Amino acid sequence: MRAVDIIQKKRDGGELSSEEIAYLIQGYSRGDIPDYQISAWAMAVYFQGMNARETGDLTLEMAKSGDQVDLSPIAGIKVDKHSTGGVGDKTTVVLAPLVAAAGVPVAKMSGRGLGHTGGTIDKLESISGFSVEMDRERFFAQVGEIGAAVIGQSGNITPADKKLYALRDVTATVESIPLIASSVMSKKIAAGADAIVLDVKTGSGAFMKTLDDSIALAQAMVDIGTHLGRNTVAVISDMDQPLGFGIGNALEIKEGIETLKGQGPKDLEEVSLILGSHMLVLGGKARDEAEARAILKSHIADGTALEKFKQMVDAQSGDVTQIESPDKLPAAKRLIEVKAAAAGYVDGIQAEEIGIAAMLLGAGRETKESVIDLAVGIYLTKKVGDAVAAGETLAVLHVNDAAEDKVAEAESKVIEAYRISSSPVVPPPLVYALVTKDGVTRY
Ligand code: URA
Fold first, then answer.
1. What percent of the chain is predicted at pLDDT more than 70?
2. Quick check: helix, strand or coil at residue 392?
């Protein structure tokens, strides 16, 4: 077999065999096939696409390229949740304890943030002492004992995807549905999930800006999960504005705690309940979404979800007093109010711009090496649909040591992110569609 023939076949619209896909990915992993040939192949896939079988094969090859976590020592159906990345998305912080309180084991590996989107691991590290590293035995033991553990991606998970993603990033081949779908799903499969709930974001702050593209990505991922024997559903949720009010690590943990107490922002609570309901159904703890929602709400109301979070924080060496008194979490030294220039109604909040503004303040990483400030970020005081008066506060910047030019740039980004209309605005739906192996339901 020769890489050049496989590239040519895909370039001309052919269907690659399982052996050809294995040859490319294994050869690339070993270093036998060079970056320039894989770049050409990725561009051919970008233009010609891949069918469900090819995409499934690519996923499996990447999943097999490194460690594969065997979660079978943990009893029960292990349901993973994955978000395609949003701004202010702290649903994992809410869902890990909430779903665990309802009896579905959560053995979750999460990532760090890069660019305008945050990462769950960074958020959790704003709790003093919280450890995101543990060996496999301790990880399993914690999930067995308290039902939930969230750790950083350890070991050598999907090295072929890591290499290919870095290459796609610099060859303009990221935005390909089969390549994104196989990249995401390879990590979920390698991490050992029995079932998967995907939160596919759509809108200005998402990878996929249109509903149709988001649904197509969701369908590709659901097809892969189904093909590989993992029950998979995808919720298409809104990212035309950030989720909740807080963007920035400690600010997001505070909001997660409020939500676990039933006092969080309504949009965050609702998206968490929707995703959590699907996790309960796939985990065999509820017959349908309505029953699952009632179970989840009861765990918020009776305090068991918050208690579960405290147990998880304690087990991972975090300071539980910060969960009991969130004012003890890291806080910024300076608050700067960003005011509306004119009166009207908030018509849109460009999530990506808000994410970049938070990054400029130090909440996120410009490069993988950037050091983040856990206390800083942005708190939105107005969301889409809200009325604003001229001079009223739209958002508050939480600032520590960022250079003044960065603070000024962040401030202008926030102002630019807000679109104000002169007539009343109806807030967008939180969820647009559900994709399962049986098809697409649009709401
Ligand atoms: N996230 C991933 O993990 N992979 C992609 O290709 C795109 C987003």
1. 100
2. coil
pLDDT tens by residue, 112-141: 877 777 789 999 999 999 999 998 899 999
Nearest to residue 356, comparing CAs of 119, 85, 116? 116
CA 193 – CA 203 distance, rounded (Å): 28
Domain that holds residue 41: 3-49
Do residues 246 and 282 share a domain?
yes
Tell me how far apart the alpha carbons of residues 105 and 107 are, in angstroms, rounded to a whole number.
Answer: 6
CA of 284 to the centre of ligand 1 (A): 29
Protein residue with its CA nearest to atom 7 in ligand 1: 180
CA distances from 110 to 11, 84, 150, 181 (A): 35, 12, 7, 17
Q: Choose the catalytic residue: 183, 186, 272, 277.
A: 183
Calculate how far, in angstroms, residue 81's C-alpha sits from the geometric centre of ligand 1.
Answer: 15
Catalytic residue status for 168: yes
Ligand 1 centroid–CA 199 distance in Å is 13
Active site residue 161: yes
Tell me, yes or no, if 386 is annotated catalytic.
no
Total structural domains in the chain? Answer: 3
Q: Which of 187, 230, 299, 310 is catalytic?
A: 187
The CATH number assigned to the domain holding 352 equals: 3.90.1170.30
Say if residue 88 is in the same domain as residue 177.
yes
Question: Residues with Cβ within 6 A of ligand 1?
Answer: 165, 174, 179-180, 183-184
Q: CA 199, CA 309: separation in Å to the nearest integer?
A: 22
Q: What is the pLDDT of residue 206?
A: 86
298 tagged catalytic: no
State residue 377's pLDDT score. 97
Residue 255 lies in a domain: yes
In a domain, 212, yes or no: yes
Name residue 177's amino acid.
I
Name which of 398, 364, 380 is nearest 122 in CA terms: 364
398 flagged as catalytic: no
The protein residue whose alpha carbon is closest to atom 8 in ligand 1 is 180
Query: Are residues 121 and 136 part of one domain?
Result: yes
